[in-house]
Amino acid sequence: MSLFARLQALLSAHPSAPEAAPGQTPATAIAPTAAAAPGEVVDTASAPPVCTRYLPAGQVVVREGDPGHSMFVVLEGRVAVLRGGDNGVNTEVGRLGAGEFFGELALLTGTQRTATIVTVEDAVLLELTQAGVRELGKDYGVKGDQMQETARERLLADALRSNPLIAALPSDVQHDLGDAFVPVTVPAGETLLTRGQPGDALYVLIRGQCEVFHTHGDGRHSAYPKLEEGALFGEISLLRSRLATATVRTVTPCTLLKLERDVFKKAFLGQPDLRGALVRLGLERLKHTMEVMGEPK
C-alpha cells in the first residue's frame, strides 16, 4: 500500500484521538485546534505529535524561509503553493487538495521551508511532527523512509524542472543522482566556493540566489551573472582536480542539493552522459573565466 493510501486509511479509520487505557495518556493526540486569524502564520513549533487544524480561507500555514517543525496532510479543502520572486512578490506555482501533503522536505531534511502555503478555502489539515511520524510508523506502518523518499523525489523534480543538464540525463542516472544528492540550507553571506581553493562538492541551487565573482591580483572584483534557481556549479574542481576558478557566495538564504566529491568519484565519474555534460559546462565556464581575467586593469 502506498504512503498516500496508508495516510488516508489512517484518517478515515481514526478521525479522533485513539482511546487510551484508564490512567494512560495517548502517545498520539489527534484533536481539533483553533485556527488563527486569516493571514496569520499557524504556530507549528509547539504542536503535539499529531493534531488536526481547522483553518479558514486565506490562512498562511507555513512561510517560505522559516524552519520546518512539522508536515501537513490535506484532509479537506485546498491550499495554494506560493514562491517568492526577486521583487518580493509571491507567485502561485500549484495547489494541493485532499490526500496530498506538504512540508515533509523541511521536516525530514532539516532545510528551511521552500514555499509559502496558504489555504484558498476553508480547510482541515493533519499536522505531524517528527514524533508524530514515528508514531505513525510504529502504530500504522507509515514508514519514515517512505516519506524521506518522497522528499527526495520532490527535490529531484525541482532540479529537473529548473536545470536542463539534469533533465537531459537518462532516467536511471537521474534516479541515482536523486539518491546521492544531500539537501542543505545555507544562510545569506556564506561562501560555498573560494577562488584558488579546492572545491569539495557539486551543487544544484534549488531556492535562493548566489553571487559569483573573480578577484584580480590588485583586489578588484569582476562579477559574473548571479546564479539563480536551477544553477549547477562546482563541476570544474570535481572533474579536473583544479582549484575553484571563482568565488560563489550566497546572496539570500539558499536551499541546495549537494553531491560530495567522494560520492561523485565513486558513483558518477564513469557515467558518460553526466561526465560529458559536466565537461561541456566546465569548458564554457573556463572560457568565461579566461575572458574575465583578461580584462584590462
Strand % is: 25-35%
Q: How are the strands ordered across the major sheet?
A: 1-8-3-6
Helix content: 25-40%
Q: Helix- and strand-based class?
A: alpha+beta
Spans of at least 5 consecutive residues whose pLDDT stays below 50 are 13-33
Q: Please tally the β strands and state the result.
A: 16
What is the ordering of alpha helices and beta strands?
A: HEEEEEEHEEHHHHEEEEEEHEEHH
Distance between the termini: 65 Å
Shape: elongated
Topology:
Blueprint: H1 3-13, E1 50-55, E2 60-62, E3 71-76, E4 79-84, E5 90-96, E6 101-102, H2 104-109, E7 116-119, E8 123-128, H3 130-140, H4 144-162, H5 164-167, H6 171-180, E9 182-186, E10 191-193, E11 201-207, E12 210-215, E13 221-223, E14 232-233, H7 235-240, E15 247-250, E16 254-260, H8 261-267, H9 272-293
Antiparallel strand pairs: 1-8, 2-7, 3-6, 3-8, 4-5, 4-7, 9-16, 10-15, 11-14, 11-16, 12-13, 12-15
Helix pairs in contact: 4-6
Mind explaining what this structure looks like?
- The chain is elongated, with a radius of gyration of 22 Å.
- The strands form 4 sheets. It has a 4-stranded antiparallel beta sheet. A 4-stranded antiparallel beta sheet has the order 2-7-4-5, with no helix packed on it.
- Helix 4 packs across helix 6.
- The chain is built from 9 helices and 16 strands.
- The longest helix is centred in the C-terminal third of the chain and has 22 residues.
- It is of the alpha+beta class.
- The N and C termini lie far apart (65 Å).
- Strand 4 and strand 5 form a beta hairpin.
